[in-house]
Amino acid sequence: MKFQWLLILGLIFALIIAVFAVINVDPVQVNLLFDMVQVPLILLILGCALVGGLIVGFYGIYRQYRLQRQIKSLQAQVTELSSTSATSNRTAASDVNFDTMYDKTDGSSSDFSERKL
């Protein structure tokens, strides 16, 4: 739904730029540092909007690429930590001596079959 709203807003913005550009068709003088040229204002407005869109688009692609790299790095850390955790849990469980947990020498019985209710 968010993408649809962004698309609609983008189209409205493009329509506003197009109307603004069509209204301003007078030629203007542009200084290119090495030469002065006469360009219709409509082309200048549309060209600047296009360059701005390209800059924003390339920045979005770069940001998406960087975030994907970060996600892959974090997923690798999660799998490494989970495998380390599973290994430490297995070693901790194997270190437990179940024979010492049930000691019959103190006289008290912890077996359910021997208990009287």
Shape: elongated
Weakly predicted, low-confidence segments: none
Mean pLDDT across residues: 81
- Helical residue percent band: 55-70%
Question: How many helices does DSSP assign?
Answer: 3
Rg, alpha carbons: 36 Å
Described by strand count, sense and barrel closure, the largest sheet is: 2 strands, antiparallel
User: Care to count the β-strands?
Assistant: 2
Structural class of the helix and strand makeup? Answer: mainly alpha
Distance between the termini: 64 Å
What share of the residues does DSSP label as strand, in percent?
5-15%
Strand sequence of the main sheet, in spatial order?
1-2
Spell the H/E element sequence.
HEEHH
Task: Describe the protein in words.
The protein has helices at 2-23, 41-95, 98-101; strands spanning 27-31, 36-40. By secondary structure, the chain is mostly helical. Helix 1 runs antiparallel to helix 2 (41-95). A two-stranded antiparallel ribbon has the order 1-2. It has three helices and two strands; from the N terminus they run αββαα. The longest helix has 55 residues, at 41-95.
List keywords for this structure.
mainly alpha; 117 residues; 3 helices; two-stranded antiparallel ribbon; 69% helix; elongated
Indicate the topology.
Elements: H1 2-23, E1 27-31, E2 36-40, H2 41-95, H3 98-101
Antiparallel strand pairs: 1-2
Helix pairs in contact: 1-2
